[in-house]
Amino acid sequence: MFDHAKWVFYAATAYTWLGDDDRAEEHALETIQMHTRPDGTSNAPMRVADAHIDLGIVHARRGNLDAAVEQGMTAFDIDRKSLTDLVNRAADLDRVIRQRYRREALAEEFHERYVTARRALITRRPELLD
């Protein structure tokens, strides 16, 4: 059986990795739309968080640091069950932001949020994220 929602989710990340920013953005936005309820909660928080990371990478590549950091922070703010996947994906966004915007305060702000999440994962202390 074909799961369209899962395909769109995986396609967003695959296109991000391939550097096809237009298609990555299209699929990430579709993933967020499909999995966001009218009240703003999600029925697939990890997929939505990953889609925000994909959008962050796209924005960073396009030269929009503000939008990139906003998407990354949004991903960190989503209630989720697994921190491991989010930290691994956030590392991709952090790498792009630091390569392109190393001296920018917003880049450092995102990096600190990423480092805090990584530390929480390593020490298994999710309260560090609050």
What is the fold's blueprint, element by element?
Layout: H1 4-18, H2 21-35, H3 45-61, H4 65-77, H5 83-101, H6 105-123
Helix pairs in contact: 1-2, 1-3, 2-3, 3-4, 3-5, 4-5, 4-6, 5-6
Describe what you observe in this structure:
This protein is an all-alpha fold and 130 residues long. It has a single domain, classed as Serine Threonine Protein Phosphatase 5, Tetratricopeptide repeat. The chain has six helices and no strands. The chain has helices spanning 4-18, 21-35, 45-61, 65-77, 83-101, 105-123. Helix 3 packs antiparallel against helix 4 and helix 4 (65-77) runs parallel beside helix 6. The chain is globular, with a radius of gyration of 14 Å. The model has no long low-confidence stretch (mean pLDDT 92).
Total DSSP E strands: 0
Mean pLDDT: 92
Shape: globular
Q: Any guess at the CATH architecture?
A: Alpha Horseshoe
Name of the CATH first level: Mainly Alpha
Tell me about the largest β-sheet. none
Rg (CA only):
14 Å
User: How many structural units, i.e. domains?
Assistant: 1
Percent of residues in helical segments?
over 70%
Q: Identify the quaternary structure here.
A: single chain
Number of helices: 6
**What is the name of the CATH topology?**
Serine Threonine Protein Phosphatase 5, Tetratricopeptide repeat
Helices and strands, in order, run as: HHHHHH
Low-confidence segments, ≥5 residues, pLDDT <50?
none
User: What is the strand content?
Assistant: under 5%
**Helical/strand content category:** mainly alpha
InterPro entries: TPR-like_helical_dom_sf (IPR011990)
Organism: Streptosporangium subroseum
Protein name: Tetratricopeptide repeat-containing protein
